[in-house]
Amino acid sequence: MHRQNKLSVTRWEANDGGCTVYLGKRASEKFARIYNKHSESNDEKWLGCVRYELELKGDSARIVARDLASGCEVLPAIAGYLLEFLKNRGLSITLPAISAKSIDLRRPRSDLMTKLQWLANSVRPSVQQLVGAGEIQTVLAALGLDHVVHH
């Protein structure tokens, strides 16, 4: 395959021994970073770890988001996108076995306090503005609470 534009590869080295490789340009639809997680964090739990980050924008992000929302196994899918991106740039890596049990990406089940907090943070400002504009009945109707007696 012949490409009109050369792929951008940038290597950045820090004086503390850290090194980051960037594949693509920051403004590109697909952009990756590869770096030594231990050097970046100074946390011993990351000793010997390399972090791969793939940043997607535009159509690429929409396609991947749609695929992930379709119910596929998230970790293997993400690993697959990363490996394909790297392969298309001439890099071949082997990732450790990925188990869906290794990381639980599901949101915790919402409880009453979480719902109330969401209402206070996300809904209250809009409701206050609408009530201040004299739209209390419209707000109650929108919430399905128009049958509630207001004193």
Quick overview of this protein structure:
With 151 residues, this protein is an alpha+beta fold. It is built from five helices and four strands.
Describe this structure in words.
With 151 residues, the chain is α+β, with helices and mostly antiparallel strands. It folds into 2 domains: 79 residues, no CATH class; 45 residues, no CATH class. 39% of the residues lie in helices and 16% in strands. It contains 5 helices and 4 strands, in the order βββαβαααα. It has a 4-stranded antiparallel beta sheet. A hairpin with a 6-residue loop joins strand 2 and strand 3. Helix 4 packs antiparallel against helix 5.
List the helices and strands and how they pair.
Blueprint: E1 9-13, E2 19-23, E3 30-36, H1 37-41, E4 50-56, H2 58-69, H3 74-87, H4 112-132, H5 136-142
What are its keywords?
four-stranded antiparallel sheet; 2 domains; 151 residues; alpha+beta; 4 strands
Number of strands: 4
**Topology order in helix (H) and strand (E) letters:** EEEHEHHHH
> Globular, elongated, flat, extended or rod-shaped: what is the shape?
elongated
The residue fraction in helices comes out at 25-40%
How many helical stretches? 5
Mean model confidence by pLDDT: 82
The chain-level structural class is: alpha+beta
**Rg for CA atoms:** 24 Å
Strand order of the largest sheet: 1-2-3-4
Count of the domains: 2
